[in-house]
Amino acid sequence: MASPKIVRMTAPRLRDVAQLAGVHPATASRALNPQTRQQVNADTARRVLRAAESIGYQPNPIARSLKTARTGTVGLVIPDLTNPLFPPIVRGIEDVLTPAGYNAWIVNTDNDPQREEAQVEALRSRQVEGLIVATARRTHPLLARLHRQGVKMVLVNRRVDGLELPSVTADDDAGIGLAVAHLVGLGHTRIAHLAGPQHTSTGVSRARAFRHALIDHGLPDDPALTVECGYWSESEGARGLRRLLDGGRAFTAVVAGNDLIALGCYDVFAERGMTCPDDVSVVGFNEMPYLDKMRPPLTTVAIPHYEIGAEAGRLLLDTIDEPDRYPRSVLLAPSLVVRASTTPAPCDAASR
Amino acid sequence: MASPKIVRMTAPRLRDVAQLAGVHPATASRALNPQTRQQVNADTARRVLRAAESIGYQPNPIARSLKTARTGTVGLVIPDLTNPLFPPIVRGIEDVLTPAGYNAWIVNTDNDPQREEAQVEALRSRQVEGLIVATARRTHPLLARLHRQGVKMVLVNRRVDGLELPSVTADDDAGIGLAVAHLVGLGHTRIAHLAGPQHTSTGVSRARAFRHALIDHGLPDDPALTVECGYWSESEGARGLRRLLDGGRAFTAVVAGNDLIALGCYDVFAERGMTCPDDVSVVGFNEMPYLDKMRPPLTTVAIPHYEIGAEAGRLLLDTIDEPDRYPRSVLLAPSLVVRASTTPAPCDAASR
DNA sequence: TTGTAGGCGTTATCAT
DNA sequence: ATGATAACGCCTACAA
User: Fold this and answer.
1) Does A81 contact B84 at a Cβ distance shorter than 8 Å?
2) How far, in Å, is the CA of B51 from the C1' of nucleotide C12?
3) Which CATH number fits domain A172-303+336-351: 3.10.105.10, 3.40.1190.10, 2.60.40.10, 3.40.50.2300?
């Protein structure tokens, strides 16, 4: 005598579990939730869990979110995923968030404020619980507004002027210090800086660090030897170096704002028949992948990408858990990776 | 006489809009939804829209999803975000999905089946409406199961044996054909292949295309000149080339399964004091970024990354809209980018 | 054309 | 310890 069985083709719901275990849905809910499980008789709980298991019950996160107003998601706002700097950061973030029960939405803004606004709007409408933002500019009305509205966020790599937000950045001062010390140690005295965009905190702090480092080494700080790039990109790096070369001031080494800017220099060297490092030494920043296979392999300042992501994840979790905690920021120490793009300055130090 | 105003600190809801417009929430709902707007008096609709606008109403997608059982999200399953192949593909996907009202969740599996299963589970529990999968292996129980369960998906770059799923791939046959023809044109007759993993369809199809191309050019197909790499990675490329070199069979050129495998060869050249292309010419596949700055700049088969993503997005939308449509697959034409890693074969053709 | 009512699946708050 | 009930915000037959 086969027992009749009604087959539901949709996913099993809480009430199915409850029915099977012979309890009320509310009880099943309590039994299933580790937080509230001790409110329920151990035997009952076991029965419910077995029932859930047996029919493959998975709670519907949408219904849960509607009720609890929590989604277990955070947004990741990245300026440009094709910049190889970010994947390891993303990885670090995920490795921290996943065990805490959060998932991350990654969005790409392509350095376009309009696109950024739309993307952030999409994230908010999907009720993310917090934001990790890598697109900060020094003046950033959108982020300022979000902050005022109480959106929880953590900045990565860059900061916003006058906004007290938790952030994780590399220690630019230390990193540029390493780069300059390395070049000075090689005998360079005329060192140029291809600065990143000065509307980003990182562009500014690296430029400032560069000036300080020159002074520390007793070198003159010639403003003509610092040129700003409009973006953190190869093409802007190339433009910057052309301006530097056309400026007529002699220099034997370049500290680039980041690796992409440094790689842009390589294009100009090719254009003008110059060779690196013989004509000009170059140092990058970030230690992006594949630098060891470049022509020449690029000397650079390495930063702990993965750890930056992991720290950002931790800060965001803290911010979500304790909204009133005073914003901490984390500074991570860089290190220098010496490769073949730097070499001792020519003896005729005034050359080039 | 200021009108009293009750201030809600939470997001405005449909009922707030309705109240402000002096209509029932149901009417407001209809007015707000373009699909049902013509059911409502044009004036009323206008009033509702203005009311919504004025208080910045955004429908709560969670409540909507609970009701409609649709989420407007799809999952993107990527083996390794640090592979620069993927960002432009992701971009293409997003550019197609966004206008259609969908957002994409990106997850990273790191080539780890366990992690993949967990990530896919997370996506499904968040009720994504479809999956774009770039991690397919030729035998892939997880994907087979998902397919049986009716999960809508599109494969990118790789396929699953015996599973009729829509897919978007580069035309491997044509691409490898270009590479081999180029090398033959340069006089190479002993050409090796560093094949990608044979558990991926791409690895197999490129290896098969390689054999066919040799035959087409009347060259002997020496099995000892094909070596399989365990992953699509630099380190496996390096291992493969070492095995090839240690095998004692002469060859003057290598067709690598992809760019990363090709770059792995560069490491071995450095190790063994060989120079590329003088000792061995190398061709890659994919045209990943920065190849032009490598030492030497890598000749490679370029594929339209962005278009691959865009096509995948379109296929998925089709699959969602017309679930019963017969699975189409799209093959995109590659092109050859000649750089400095390939050069005419040495006159002494039997050398090396 | 508009309003009514019920429900999507879960959980929080009562009461028992 | 468990059950009943309502509510999260929205949508949609159905009724008016």
Assistant:
1) no
2) 32
3) 3.40.50.2300
